[in-house]
Amino acid sequence: MAAIEILDLEKSYLVGFWRKRLKLALRPLRLTIEEGEVFGFLGPNGAGKTTTLKLLMGLVFPTAGTARLLGRAMGDPAVKSQIGFLPEQPYFYDHLSARELLNYYGQLSGMPAKGRSARVEQMLERVGLSASAGLQLRKFSKGMLQRVGLAQAILHDPKLVFLDEPMSGLDPMGRREVRDLIQQLRSEGKTVFFSTHILSDAEALCDRVGVIHQGELRAVGAVAELISETQGKIEIIFYAQKVPAGLTSLGAEAGVSGDMVNAVLPEEQQDAALEVLRRERLKLISLTPVRRSLEEYYIQKLRPPEGQNKDEQNHEGQNQDGRNEDIRKEKAVDRKGVGA
Amino acid sequence: MNPGPTNARIGYIAFNTFREAVRDRVLYNLIAFALLLSGAAIIVGEISIDIERLVVVNLGLTAVSLFGVVIAIFIGIGLVSKEIDKRTLYTVLSRPVRRWEFVLGKFLGLTGTLVVNTFFMAIGVFLALLYVADKFEKMDLWVLVALYFIVLQFLIVCALALFFSSFSTPLMSAVFTFALFVIGSLAEDMRGFARTTHGVAGWLATAIAYLVPNFSALNVISQVAHGDPVPGRLILYNTVYALLYSAMAISGAVLIFQRRNLK
């Protein structure tokens, strides 16, 4: 069963005081995430990641579309008791201690009184806050609040966990712990949907990622596939003091490091390059296809589509009127479709 | 996991609201109240003849009402808006908590705080009465009724503050609520004025006089200070009126909050 089915979820806001304009926060989004999957939602700030999460949590209402979580309509209280959510830069009731807050959230989630306290202590231990569990949250640092946030998100043993920028505000040690936590959730069979703009985290943790930009889902795919796609180039490393002239004439970009040469050249020149090495009696160390990193993939997806020049991009960013016209047209078509 | 019963969730939210008010030192107002009342009782005991009881009841109950109204307005306007601004609401509404449950829980938490606050102030009033009169009399029972009416006033003020804050800024909500409290305290005069006015002005005055909460009917301070009894019918009418008016304001707040996008 799909854990998350997002069915053309769309959100636009009216902005402006006198002249109301429609601002599109999320273009129709269609996405399915299977149970047990760790999914990374990537995108720069303001791309629409938090809007998507808020829509799924019922904090804002969609302009169009819907979503199903664990096979039920989003917003169904029965589903919400099986969901954990960590908002971006969370803020909690600062008059409460971490222990009281977790107990309160446990009550709201419908956790039975029996065993709740033990579970709260277990969670505090898990996020490393046992020593400060009795301290009021107003005395907590940003990193400690983030840990409380993680504890409250998994307190009631949810099947589906949404984390909005879970690494934000954490030191390297804290980030490592969050990574371990997500790995642990995966091993427990939980579904994790997390947004981030830290690509190394996504690369290390996710089964699949989606790239969102300017409210539009630009790509979705398995991390392994995305980063294993070759770029039609090979990398050759061999022992030599200088770059052989024959290799440069094949179009290689080469550099010398100590007694090794590293050369990148088009895939179709592979045989010719090996012939040059043989001729020069140079010892080959390795020959590998060039793989792109998730970062390269991400940056490629954020680039404007071909044919769309920079001016158009700027225009799109600054003036939504044209796009609003498109939205109105699309909606009119949708309405006709429904009517038919 | 079973999301649990609705009334339990409302109870948890109400208790958390009460706990927040107590920890934010809202009940510290009791110290100011105690100082005011004990000072007044001592002065009145020194200078007046036979009107000590009248002065203590008038002053005590008016102070109970004003202290409570100020708390009801200033906490009431922030009950929901503060949770939206600070985003504490995100982790509550992502749980199996319906928006109306949240609003009702917050309302009950604040009214609970005010009831506890009023209880302690009532003890202060009776102690001051005992100080100036040496003993309690049967007519002092009517002071309890006046205190009950004051609690009914708080119910309406809290509900109005919550209603205005569901669509307006905290400052404007405070202004609207306080304005309605003042106008509502003159509701009986407005009704009298409406009866003597004709035409469109008369129609308008009648509409306003009956739309604003009738706080003047809930104010029997002067009556009980003179030792006059309060009719049982008025107690019943006032109870029904306050509950209905609060329910309407809370329903309005819920209707608006149900549709609100949280920024």
What does it look like?
In chain A, helix 4 packs across helix 5. Chain A contains 13 helices and 14 strands. Mean pLDDT of chain A is about 85; it is low at about 310-340. By secondary structure, chain A is α/β, with parallel strands linked by helices. Chain A has 3 domains: about 1-225, 3-Layer(aba) Sandwich (Rossmann fold); about 230-290, Alpha-Beta Plaits; about 310-340. Chain A has a 6-stranded mixed beta sheet with strand order 6-7-8-3-9-10, sandwiched between helices. With about 260 residues, chain B is mainly alpha-helical. Chain B has one domain (about 5-260). Helices cover about 80% and strands about 0% of the residues of chain B. Chain B has helices at about 5-25, 30-45, 50-75, 80-85, 90-95, 100-135, 140-165, 170-185, 185-195, 200-210, 220-225, 230-260. The radius of gyration of chain B is 20 Å and the shape is globular. The mean pLDDT of chain B is about 90.
Q: Could you give a short account of the major beta sheet of chain A?
A: 6 strands, mixed
> Which whole number gives the mean pLDDT of chain A?
84
CATH superfamily of the largest domain in chain A: P-loop containing nucleotide triphosphate hydrolases
Tally of DSSP helical segments of chain A: 13
The general outline of chain B is globular
- What is the CATH architecture assignment of the largest domain in chain A? 3-Layer(aba) Sandwich
Secondary-structure map:
The complex is a heterodimer of chains A (about 350) and B (about 260).
Chain A (H helix, E strand, L loop, with lengths): L1 E14 L5 E14 L3 E5 L6 H9 L6 E6 L2 E2 L3 H4 L2 E4 L11 H11 L7 H11 L15 H13 L5 E5 L7 H16 L3 E6 L2 H7 L2 E6 L2 E7 H6 L1 E10 L5 H4 L4 E5 L2 E7 L3 H11 L3 E8 L2 H9 L7 H9 L2 H19 L1
Chain B lengths: L5 H18 L5 H19 L4 H25 L4 H5 L2 H6 L5 H35 L7 H25 L4 H16 L1 H10 L2 H13 L9 H5 L6 H27 L5
Helix pairs in contact in B: 1-6, 2-3, 2-6, 3-6, 3-7, 6-7, 6-12, 7-8, 7-12, 9-10
